[in-house]
Specification:
By secondary structure, this protein is an alpha+beta fold. It has 1 helix and 4 strands, in the order E-E-H-E-E. The chain has one domain. A hairpin with a 2-residue loop joins strand 3 and strand 4. It starts with a strand and ends in an 8-residue tail after the last strand.
Length: 72
Amino acid sequence: MAKVLELLFENEEGKTVSYTLNDPIEPVNEADVNMAMDAVIEQHAFSSSGGEVIKKQSARIVERTVTEITLS
């Protein structure tokens, strides 16, 4: 099962921008995620086609299961 930590921000155009981090440390520390997202905004660490990220929207763990199918 693949897990990612998905960080969602709002950019200057008001659009949602997401960044994903593979294999997050669990359990996820909510305070650390909040501080990291604040640092991204304060340091202008990321930008998008709609401008810099300016606001936190949400953060979440996303899991997906991949089952390989054998082809003959």
